[in-house]
Amino acid sequence: MEIKSLEGVPFDNIFLAFSRAFEDYEVQLNKEQLIKMLKRRGFDPGLSFAVFDSQKIVSFILNGIGHYKGAATAYDTGTGTLKEYRGKGLATALFNYSIPFLRQHSIHQFLLEVIQGNTSAVSVYKRLEFNITREFNYYIREKSKLIRVENGTGKFHVIRPDQLRQLINPSLFWDFYPSWQNGFEAIERDPESFEIIGVYDGHTLTGYCVYDPESGEITQIAVNKNFRRRKIATRLMNIAVSNSLSDNVKIMDVESSCDAMNEFLISAGMEIKGKQFEMLKNI
Length: 283
Fold this sequence. Notes:
Elements: E1 2-5, H1 11-21, H2 31-40, E2 49-53, E3 56-68, E4 71-81, H3 90-104, E5 109-115, H4 119-127, E6 131-142, E7 155-158, H5 164-167, H6 170-173, H7 184-189, E8 195-201, E9 204-212, E10 217-223, H8 232-243, E11 248-255, H9 259-267, E12 272-282
Parallel strand pairs: 4-5
Antiparallel strand pairs: 1-2, 2-3, 3-4, 5-12, 6-11, 6-12, 7-8, 8-9, 9-10
């Protein structure tokens, strides 16, 4: 067996390994969904690595490359090992192998998210000197069971993805920093997948929502701190839910310490389906 980068490896081979490594997971991705996920997360095959047994991928780490909180960052989009190759320390070998290559490309930190219940993975990451930085809730709810109460005032406008950075002052809208997959860079990597709506009071943007109609995922929803308690978030969510083509609505990576957002989502009918740790390693 040998470790090599995924540069030039046919995507079908990567998809096959991904599917086999995660075949016992509740949620399965088809090829198109995996391509979309990797695009949004900044997948770089040249800085992603796999263990090959002859020509077969048996363990892999798919890294996204970008910036997080101002620093050049590698993001673990997916690490997996085929069932028959587990327990051999291959994932640890991949992480250790990748670090020098990331440093050569001026990457300063390694970021990932892991389901809290996956205690074996959490233990591996801790041994690799990843530190828990935040705790996230993720929500999934059937579209038909969400509460929809139309209320409030203000005009809606469509916002282009390339306008978002210029229009949003994070200190005025955000109660917590978005995760890697929900940040501005993620939206800009795959702009055709998202719809963005804003509510205005005159010329002032009072709230906005970024969502993916195909998957039903709400990526960002926020209200100007000077215009809260006016049902703006409820109206934004109603539009996102109504325009969703999926039977389920999903909201990933809500910081668990943000009481305002969690209370709003629960009051709107969303349900917490699980919790994740965000973990970070300086390299």
